């Protein structure tokens, strides 16, 4: 990987369809380093509370990472609506994106053995589930007719920005702040009072086990996050991962709120700019 670069040194392929699930075409934008490769790659997963958001949230991260030798495939996934849950569907969408990237590794000049996940907020939840639990019965083999359905979904690492790693805790927070507008409940299709097992299955912290500890993890969050409780999510997840023998690194941003992950990286004093070199060092070591 290069430690520096410019957007002139990258190739973009926008609007690729990586899978069609239940008649929904799923797209992705590819940011590729120029050169012979093979390069490591990240599948990028935007945030938006499981109900909104778009893959162009990674419009700065994609070129920044690609110009430094890391390909990025920023993907869309199915969003939840009232009465239309997308669990485990959104996780299965991301698993299909991993398979698509690995299946196209030769054409994309990426190394199929060096693929990771990079998720923000709700995308951190989905990405952590795909990274740690992709082979569990809850998520595996959801779409056997996908063109690359037989390809491995394993990844080397997960990098999360202010992710939701305990969905029951987040359900309570939504319930207090927005009664009757609970995004977790839309995503999962049931309240915890109806189905507590569902909340266990949808929480990445549930998969912080010895069996899964080959995946390296980087977690970043601001000290003033006003949406996702840092201690109950990032801090608790990092502790559980450490206890299970994972390689874990954290970047804590002093004064950082929520929603900064899609800010320009080269903006003076931006939180994204503070994270970027630290994330890059993690990628250089573990991807």
Please characterize this protein's 3D structure:
The chain has 287 residues and is an alpha/beta fold. It has a single domain (7-286), classed as Alpha/Beta hydrolase fold, catalytic domain (Rossmann fold, 3-Layer(aba) Sandwich), CATH 3.40.50. Helices cover 31% and strands 22% of the residues. The chain has nine helices and eight strands. Strands 1-2-4-3-5-6-7-8 form an eight-stranded mixed beta sheet, with helices on both faces. α2 crosses α4 (122-133). The model has no long low-confidence stretch (mean pLDDT 96).
Quote the average pLDDT.
Answer: 96
CATH topology category name? Rossmann fold
CATH class: Alpha Beta
Oligomeric composition of the shown chains? single chain
**CATH architecture verdict:** 3-Layer(aba) Sandwich
What's the number of structural domains? Answer: 1
Assign the structural class, choosing from mainly alpha, mainly beta, alpha/beta, alpha+beta, or little secondary structure.
Answer: alpha/beta
Question: What is the overall shape?
Answer: globular
As a percent range, the share of strand residues is 15-25%
Task: Give the uncertain stretches in residue-range form.
Answer: none
Give me the Rg, rounded: 17 Å
Number of DSSP strand runs: 8
Q: What is the topological layout?
A:
Elements: E1 10-21, E2 24-33, E3 39-45, H1 61-66, E4 71-75, H2 89-103, H3 105-108, E5 110-120, H4 122-133, E6 157-161, H5 167-177, H6 183-188, H7 196-201, E7 216-222, H8 231-243, E8 248-253, H9 271-286
Parallel strand pairs: 3-4, 3-5, 5-6, 6-7, 7-8
Antiparallel strand pairs: 1-2, 2-4
């Amino acid at each position: 990987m290069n430690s520096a670069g410019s957007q002139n040194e990258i190739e973009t392929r926008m609007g690729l369809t990586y899978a069609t699930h239940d008649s929904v075409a799923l797209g992705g934008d590819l940011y590729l380093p120029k050169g012979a490769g093979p390069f490591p790659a990240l599948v990028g997963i935007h945030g938006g509370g499981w109900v909104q958001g778009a893959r162009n949230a990674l419009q700065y991260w994609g070129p920044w990472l690609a110009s430094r030798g890391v390909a990025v495939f920023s993907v869309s996934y199915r969003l939840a609506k009232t009465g239309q849950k997308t669990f485990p569907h959104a996780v299965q969408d991301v698993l299909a994106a991993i398979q698509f990237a690995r299946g196209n590794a030769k054409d994309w000049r990426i190394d199929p053995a060096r693929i990771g996940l990079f998720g923000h907020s709700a995308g951190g939840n989905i990405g952590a589930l795909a990274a740690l639990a992709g082979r569990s019965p809850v998520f595996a083999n959801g779409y056997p007719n996908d063109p690359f359905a037989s390809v491995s979904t394993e990844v080397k690492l997960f990098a999360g920005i202010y992710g939701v790693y305990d969905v029951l805790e987040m359900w309570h927070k939504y319930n207090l702040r927005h009664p009757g507008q609970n995004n977790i409940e839309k995503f999962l299709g049931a309240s915890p009072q109806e189905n507590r097992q569902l909340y266990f299955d949808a929480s990445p912290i549930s998969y912080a086990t010895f069996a899964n500890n080959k995946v390296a993890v980087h977690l970043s969050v601001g000290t003033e996050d006003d949406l996702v409780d840092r201690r109950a999510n990032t801090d608790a997840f990092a502790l559980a991962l450490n206890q299970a023998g994972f390689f874990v690194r954290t970047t804590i941003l002093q004064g950082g709120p929520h929603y900064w992950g899609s800010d320009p990286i080269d903006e003076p004093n931006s939180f994204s700019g503070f994270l970027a070199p630290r994330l890059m060092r993690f990628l250089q070591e573990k991807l």
